[in-house]
Amino acid sequence: MKRSTLSHSFLNIILVFIESALTLLLRLDPELRKAAYPLAKQGTVVALRLYLPHVEIFATFSTKGVLLDAQLPIDRSEPDVIINAYSIQIINAITTHDSETTEKLQMRGESVQVQLVKQFIMQLGLGSLIQGLIKKFKGGKSKQDLTEAEMADKKNSYQLRIKEQQTQINTLTMKNRELETTLKESQSKQKTLIIVTVVSIIGMIGAIIALLMN
User: Fold this and answer.
1) How far is Cα 97 from Cα 206, in angstroms, rounded to an integer?
2) Would you state the pLDDT for residue 186?
């Protein structure tokens, strides 16, 4: 009896950790929230009967999240969906996000709810948690999480930046034209100076030759 109590207590501790992880996943992953919404709306209860180790867990979907317990909720006489599987099968289904692996799980219940549970399992995974945490630490938001006001602010910011860059381009273009004009003027003056210098030298040479001949 004491051994059974300790086992039950240990299971409750594990369920608390898993429940907290699920709450975090639901908060960080909008796609997972979409998958959970129809189940939560119906208050779906899923019985998970695992082998190796042999345990039975009940997951109740609600607006507060996914509540886990070792016993069926008091207000329910039976679960909506029953899953019979080995622990390794559940782990594979969650970590691989593979439809084929999820389809291999033995599920009983109303077909629509069974399909919704399968979609939730395929969307569930540690990868979603890691990605969500990275986005959380980076302070980034997905496009789906942005409000219309935030989108409008970003659009205005981009337009202002484009205008500033266009102004800078126009200014640089004007300066470039001024430099080209100045360069052409300098080249023209240089040519005139060269011609005047050459003519002056020729004139001086002519004058020297004339003096010598006299």
Assistant:
1) 99
2) 73
